[in-house]
Write a structure and sequence with these properties.
Blueprint (H helix, E strand, L loop, with lengths): L1 H20 L3 E7 L9 E4 L4 E6 L2 E6 L4 E6 L5 E7 L4 E6 L4 E6 L5 E6 L4 E7 L4 E6 L4 E6 L5 E6 L4 E6 L4 E6 L4 E6 L4 E7 L9 E4 L4 E5 L5 E5 L5 E3 L7 E7 L4 E6 L4 E8 L2 E9 L6 E4 L6 E5 L25 E6 L1
Antiparallel strand pairs: 1-28, 2-3, 3-4, 4-5, 6-7, 7-8, 8-9, 10-11, 11-12, 12-13, 14-15, 15-16, 16-17, 18-19, 19-20, 20-21, 22-23, 23-24, 24-25, 26-27, 27-28
C-alpha cells in the first residue's frame, strides 16, 4: 500500500512537472491592420471579449473565435480599458481628449463622456467601492468615477507620474509612480493615499499585476527586473530578471505565474514562485515591439500587441528618442499559449 501510494504521488509530481516543462509557445496571431499606435489590452474572460486600444478606436475581439467582432471609434488617443461587468459598462481612457468614455458592453454604444485630469492613461475598476479609477499622467492624479452613474466622485493627488494600476478587490487600489520609482496605495472609498513605498532597486516601474490570494504585487521595471512587493507592508521580496523594454505585467492565478511583456527584447518572461522566492521559469520569444498584453483567465492564453516597423526618424531636441515608424496594415496580436 505504501509503495503504491509513493508511486502514485511520484507519477502525479512528474506529470505536473512535465506539463509545465512543455512551457509557453506562440500559437497564432490575429491580424487587425489599420494604422496608428496602441497601448493597453484588456481581456473580459467572463464575457469572452478582448478590448484592444488602437489609436483613436478600441478593437473588440471574440476570445473564443479570435476574430474581430466590433469597433468603438471616435476618440483621440486611447490608453486603457476597464470593465465593470456588474453595471454592463466599460470605460476607456482617452488621453487625447482628457476624458473617460463609458460604453455599453452589449452593443458597444457610447453611454457617456466624463471629464478626467490631463492625459488619463492607466485605468481600473474597483469592485469594493464600485468606482473606476483613471490615472492621469500629466496632472499626476487619479480621477475616481462612480461606475453606475458616471459621476466623478473625487480626485486623488499622487505626487508623481502614474503608470498602470491594479485593485485588490478589498478597498485598496495600487499604482506605479514611474518618475519616483514608487508604488502608492489608495483607499478606494476615502480617496486618500494610505501608503507610499519605494521599490528600489526597481527603476521606472510601468506595468503592474497582483496576486490577490498571496498579497503580492508584480511591477515591471526599466532596468530589466520585476519587483515582487508585499501588498500589505510594501517590502520588496524579490527582483527576478526580465527582458528589455517591459510595459505590461500579468498574474495567472491558475498557473501561478507572473508575466512580463518586453517590447525591446521581443520576449515574454515567465516568473514562478519557488518556495519563498521567485525565479525565471521560461523566456518566450514573441516579437520586437510586443510590449503590452492581456491574459485570458479561462484559457490562460496571453495576447500581445505589435506591428512591423520601419526606420526611426532622426532625433531632435523636441524628440530626443523618436520611435520607429509603424508599417501601415501590420498591426496584429500575437497569441501565446501554455
Amino acid at each position: 500500500m505504501r509503495r503504491r501510494l509513493f508511486v502514485t504521488v511520484c507519477l502525479a509530481a512528474l506529470t505536473a512537472a512535465f506539463a509545465f516543462a512543455q512551457g509557453y509557445k506562440v500559437s497564432g496571431s490575429i491580424s487587425i491592420g489599420g494604422s496608428g499606435g496602441w497601448d493597453y489590452l484588456t481581456a473580459d474572460s467572463e464575457n469572452r471579449k478582448l478590448y484592444v486600444s488602437h489609436g483613436t478606436e478600441v478593437v473588440v475581439i471574440d476570445l473564443d473565435t479570435e476574430k474581430v467582432v466590433g469597433h468603438i471609434p471616435g476618440m483621440m488617443r486611447i490608453h486603457g480599458i476597464a470593465i465593470a461587468n456588474e453595471f454592463g459598462t466599460g470605460f476607456i481612457s482617452d488621453g487625447g481628449s482628457n476624458q473617460v468614455v463609458a460604453f455599453d458592453l452589449k452593443d458597444l454604444s457610447i453611454k457617456n463622456k466624463i471629464k478626467a485630469g490631463t492625459n488619463p492613461d492607466g485605468i481600473v475598476y474597483d469592485g469594493a467601492s464600485k468606482r473606476v479609477f483613471a490615472f492621469n499622467g500629466r496632472s499626476q492624479d487619479a480621477t475616481a468615477i462612480d461606475a453606475s452613474t458616471g459621476a466623478v466622485a473625487g480626485t486623488v493627488s499622487l505626487g508623481g507620474k502614474p503608470e498602470f494600476p491594479v485593485s485588490d478587490g478589498k478597498g485598496s487600489v495600487y499604482d506605479n509612480i514611474e518618475d519616483k520609482s514608487e508604488i502608492v496605495r489608495i483607499d478606494s472609498k476615502t480617496l486618500t493615499v494610505t501608503a507610499r513605498w519605494a521599490v528600489a532597486p526597481c527603476e521606472s516601474p510601468s506595468g503592474l499585476a497582483i496576486d490577490r490570494s498571496n498579497r503580492r504585487l508584480f511591477a515591471v521595471c526599466d532596468n530589466k527586473v520585476m519587483a515582487v512587493v508585499d501588498a500589505d507592508s510594501g517590502k520588496v521580496i524579490a527582483t527576478p530578471a526580465i527582458g528589455e523594454g517591459p510595459d505590461a505585467a500579468a498574474y495567472d492565478a491558475g498557473n501561478q505565474v507572473a508575466l512580463s511583456s518586453n517590447g525591446e527584447s521581443g520576449t515574454l518572461t515567465v516568473i514562478r514562485q519557488n518556495g519563498g522566492g521567485y525565479s525565471v521559469a521560461e523566456t518566450v520569444n514573441t516579437a520586437q515591439g510586443a510590449r503590452t498584453m492581456a491574459l485570458d483567465e479561462k484559457t490562460h492564453k496571453v495576447y500581445l500587441a505589435t506591428a512591423s516597423f520601419g526606420a526611426a526618424p532622426a532625433a531632435s531636441a523636441a524628440n530626443p528618442h523618436p520611435r520607429r515608424s509603424i508599417q501601415p496594415g501590420s498591426f496584429r496580436l500575437i497569441v501565446v499559449s501554455p
